[in-house]
UniProtKB/TrEMBL annotation:
UniProt feature coiled coil, ranges: none
Domain NADP-dependent oxidoreductase span(s) in chain numbering: 16-275
Pfam families the UniProt entry points to: Aldo_ket_red
Entries under CDD domains matching the protein: AKR_AKR13B1 (cd19088)
Name this protein carries in UniProt: Aldo/keto reductase
Keywords from the UniProt entry: Oxidoreductase
Amino acid sequence: MPSTTFRIGGDLTVGRLGFGAMHLPTEKPEDRAAAVAVARRAVELGITLIDTAHMYGYGANEKVLAEALHPYPKDLLITTKVGVVRSAETGEWDLNGRPDSLRAEVDQALRRLRVDRLELLQLHRIDPETPLADQLGTLRELRDAGKVGRIGLSEVSAAELAEAREIVDIASVQNRYNLTDREHEPVLAACEAADIAFLPWRTVAWGKAGDRAEVAAVAAELDATPTQVCLAWLLDHSPVMLPIPGTSSIAHLEENVAAADLVLTQELRGRLDGIAGAA
């Protein structure tokens, strides 16, 4: 049976099945009430890792989590991401890893989440127009100043991860990865070798897992849903894997959380391991 917890950075223990807050609605008052209810239910169900980002609703996602959960339970980690900003003139999003922009984003995240320190901060994307040493050097300075606890990356290659680790300790990587999309297997292997948390996003290929006959067959045998099978496979596939499936539905949230209790036999794992290609 796979371990149910992981220590990010070697010292921050979280449950391995987390929650991605990106899909929580925030625009209308009734939407916010529903989002608050989902976030609170996630914590009630034992979720101790919630992922958000400045980009999600231009900070509104961080605000709704604070509204729902602050003051936070001691064992709850809310991780956010910086490095993608929105133009005030055009409304378009673009990469911005310049030191002044990263510092401003961190200060804004601290205010929105109502905390003095971001225990895990991830660089949403590497900005190709700014030297990586400047981007990660800024995050290292913020860590040394006490505003950041641990530093992570998102959507990086194995080579970029190796380069980043020459500059600063990396505690997590958040890349696209699921049962039928394993492009970043080399990055996962690098994370396993260094005991770095791997937070896959798009964990169930936009809900199309059931389109695969083998997934549907395994789900039927386990009396589970295809989504649950895909999440159980992720948890079983690597000890550093911390899936963060997202939803705006309490029913779907409860379905996702129940996936942690599925047990895959060696025979079932083998059948699922044999699936390849995009969904």
